Amino acid sequence: MASRDFEILYKETRLNLEPASQSSTVHVRVPPQGAYGRSSSSRSGPSADDEKGYRSKNLATASSIYYRKHNNSPRGFLWRVLDNDTVLSLRVADVCKQQKEAPLILNLRFPTAIRPSCVGFADPEDYDALCVFVVDHSNQLWTITLRPDHFRKRTATEGGLGDACQSYSPPGFGFKHPHRLAVVNPEQLIITMHDGGILKFDRKKGPESNGGSWKETIYNVAGWGQSLRGLVPFQRNQTIKYDKINMEMTAAASTAVTTMGHSDTGFLFTICLDHRMRVWDVRTGQILYTGDILNTRRDPQEVGKWTVDPSQGNLIRILDNTRGQCLVLTYSPAGSGEFKFWKVKANDQGSIHVADCFPDAHLVPPSPSSLDVWTLADFAATQQPGGPELWTMWKNNTSYRVHRLQVQPRDVTDPFGDGWKAVHIENTVPTARASGPWNPTDSAEKWLDLIFFPGRFSKSTLETALAMYEKGLGTYKETNSRVGRSIAESICSVLGSTTTLDRSSTGGADYDQFRNTSETQWMRFWRLLLELDKQRGEALSLVFDPLEGMIWVACADLIAAVRQCSELDSVYHNLPSSEKKNEDVAALVSAGLTFVESFSDSMHQQSRAALRAELYEDSAQSDSERMQLFLDRAGFWPSVTDEDCAQVIDTLGQNYQMVTARLYEDLFDLITATSEANSQELREPFTGFGRRVVVRAVQETIELHWQILFSQLILLVHMEFDIDSEDASPLHSRFEVGSVYRRLIDALRRLEHLRWMAKTELNVSASKSGGSGSSSPALTKRSQDDNNTITALEGLTGHLFGLPESNNIPLLSNITDLVLDLCAPSSTTVLSTWLLQCRLLKLDRPDLALELNPFADQDAFSTYVQGRVFLALRDHDTASFHFRKAAIGLSISIKNLDRHSAGLLDDTEWNLLNSGLPNYYAHIVSLYDRQKAYSYVMEFSRLALQFVQPGNQEIAGIKTEMLSRLFTAATSISHFEEAHSALLSMDDEALQRSYLRKLVEKMCETGQSSELTRLPFAGLQTKVDDMLVDKCRATRDVLNGVPYHQILYAWRISHNDYRGAAAILLDRLQKLRRAGEGDRVNGGTGTGTGTDDALDTHVTRQYLLLINALSCVAPQEAYILEDVLPGDDGDGGGDSGQQKGAGGLVDDDNLESHLEELAKKLDAEAAAARDGGAMQPEEEDEDAALIEKMQKFSTATTARNGQNLPARRFLMLADLRKQYQQELDRIVAIQNNQFGFTAEDDLMDLA
């Protein structure tokens, strides 16, 4: 294509029109006459499986943007005609937000296909609404009134449109065919007909509306007689057949309406098929003016040359100036095409004057190329201080170009001499680097990153391409369901099935063949995607926003915003013909790009790997050493040819004499934001639509700046080491090369950070306006769909996008300034990595937060946040390392602490930071405790306790809390020694007692009785004993569950309390006897057969343990006390009101006398021993102690009887041996079938 050279001052930014969430699209069925429509949130239906179905379902046949004049929230509406002209899709297209956001998309489905040329809108002055007027192919006129809530709340359309939707069948359509619709105001419409006439509709009010909602008035070009003669076939004038209708030459191809400031009348301008412009008085229906649109005299014999095609609906634009005046711009498609400017004056009496502004000048717009056929499809006109500004849109199949011309009306000789400026259309196809052994990632991953880059392809495009690809393979099934699998998984599955890993000729796996085959399949799928996606970019209209000064291109499935080029954009896009002031910078940029373009894919990959090391690794080396290391790592030097070097020298001069410090300063100035507006307060924040424009522009700018700066880094290193001789004046002898190198690295590091944010997608919850709190299944499913998929750049920094205060520059320049500031190394928008990571952690995306770690700072709080990231990923060890590293910095008190964490830390947690090491470690302990990482809870609890100063009352609570957490954590993971130490350190007795019980129970339940007995429990042994006694008393089944009796027995034995050990064995013995364990051999069935020892029962074993324990006690203390339960006989029971001394029962009243007798007996024995010389003083003391204990027992027994507690009795060692023997005799008797009967036993019936 031989393109003409136009200076590029603007560039477009394309946006996907795919909704961010499934629930944001609401389908509303427009009911036929007499019916009511219903609405429903959209669900992903079956995608089109061929190109025709794809075009029908997803590509619009007509699209534009309507801007309201009287109401501004919302103000702009993007409308599209879809699905074989049966759906009118409406959405808000405001960039700036005045009030509440309006995120919903309304898809109005009509019962009959609508006429795309008969869609109009109006903005009522009296109330806030959007009036939609549509004429369908059944000649129904639809009037739909939409309120702002229809675009904000799904509930507004849940019951259908109701009275907001009305239809009318105009009688005038019975013998006339509508062609164009023009809206004068909400109460008045005009529809041009096929015969050149117009049909005016005035809305009826009050009683007049009974016969219909509109009043019709028909006006014709030549009166009724001419119109009726036109119905007779043989008397018709020349016509043009269009859409199966014979159009009269006076029929309007394009229309425009203006009031020129008059409130009681309007003027309809029509460009007719006969190449004439007619001006109608809307009020009277009279034609006020008729003239050729080029103001030339035509040869009557050349009628065909001066004919306008009926499909050309964009041939006239009107710019209102002052009251009674307007500027009309017309375009003639005849020949090469030509514009005309008309100055029109009119008054409210119906007179009008039309004058050619430039009668001697011809404005013939140049096409983008001299070889291809380009058609001017649309144009827009704006009024600038210097004069009218003209924007044109050219089309060639699905390609389009946009040009701009600033008209200079004061220059009479050459008003169009300023020259046409071009808009850079981003139609370059992204390419994937070839795969090879040098690739660090899998081939599929590379392609997925390319295909699923945010905003590149729509989901419907991917699904259709996959279906067509499967059809080509012969594996497609119409009933094939991919429910439960993402589109990425489906693509990988289908393409992966086409490749197999075979063996090579040597017998090993042929990885090269596998890689090449996989690359071929991915490339096929990629080309299919590009062919489908190309159709989405077909331009349909060019729209100018009169308030914001923004130019938009509405495409089949895209919307493109035209914005101002930055200075670096202008240099890059105009490299062959740069401005004089930027010639040297352009030469430097061109040399770098040309030098890197010669690199192979492997060299590119290796150079990028070397750059990643420079971006993310801290280095203590000098600048020269860093550059040398980068050169060695990149390894491109051996592959650089003499021709490559010669090209650089030709551009930059011998020995690169053009390269100076000033030249690099000029380059860095081009990537630095010159406006400080971005640092001001926002006057109007951007809407979700506006934020998407910014994000897409940032994505484009990142790639452009990265390409330029990366090539400059490579070129700088090459030039520095290319000159070896000092006599040749190397770069380092002329300026500080290391400084330039560092600045390039810093700029690339920020671009890499932004690139990650611009390509990473998040799922965030959408605002649910008007939603109820019900938890019904329908609302639950809807809440799952209410997730917006946005980029991390929008989600994390989108609140910073907007129009700043004191800034009146056009929006197309404002967006560029904002984007340039975001990408600049010295940006006023600080990308605080720690804050971004906090937000990601709040969104429960620690995996994404981890990817930001290479960009994190090294200050204390950043290190702490990195620890939180690893903690969320349950990498506790790495998190512990970062928490320790940040400890000192976050323990020092700081005045005016900036408490920003995106909600990750609450006020309580903030109060623990910068308030000493104990508080900091206490905070870390609570973090680990939430995840039940008890070993780390112990670690940081010990650290916190280590720095607690004794006597400091302010942190006394921290000590108690840390001891509590330390004890709980140690107990949970069975670190009982640590728990024991924490327990002994507790000052709160109540808390200590509670935790002591918990520790004892835990150790008993986990079978750690041996460790329990080894722990000293200094000062707490009695409490431990009491707790175990309580557990033994509460135990009913001593054979199952926790063996508290055995544990207490071991506890007392380890503390030399043999009598106490015997006492607890006696309690267990009694419970065994009551459970009937005396008749069970070895705990078995009790049959006594086989090898079972009949005398070996739980009871007999218990007797042996009891006797052994009591045998370890001094003879005079070899007794224990036993509770006497009701029903016990002399051998083990008896009356509760009696005690048994020395193995027998005694009356409680004679207890004192028995004690006296026992004392006398002991005295006598002691006297005899003294006479014999065998009595020692120690034995006398023991006897005295025994008498004292027995007296205390007597007092306790009296008190127990007063409380109705079971009586107690003495059991001496001899008594226990006797009972043991009796138990053995009983078992032997039973084994010998010797059973004893009492009188109370029932007689057995032997009959």
UniProtKB/TrEMBL annotation:
The keyword DNA-binding does not apply. Keywords: Nucleus, Transport. The keyword Nucleus applies. It is found in: Nucleus. One of its GO terms (cellular component) is nuclear pore. Residues 1133-1144 have a biased composition (Gly residues). InterPro entries: Beta-prop_Nup120_160, HEAT_Nup120, Nucleoporin_Nup160, Nup120_helical, WD40_repeat_dom_sf. Residues 611-744 form the Nucleoporin Nup120 helical domain. Transmembrane segments: none annotated. GO terms for molecular function: structural constituent of nuclear pore. Residues 836-1005 form the Nucleoporin nup120-like HEAT repeat domain. Residues 75-569 form the Nucleoporin Nup120/160 beta-propeller domain. Residues 37-47 have a biased composition (Low complexity). Pfam families: Beta-prop_Nup120_160, HEAT_Nup120, NUP120_helical. Residues 19-54, 765-784, 1124-1148 are annotated as: Disordered. This is Nucleoporin NUP120. It comes from Chaetomidium leptoderma.
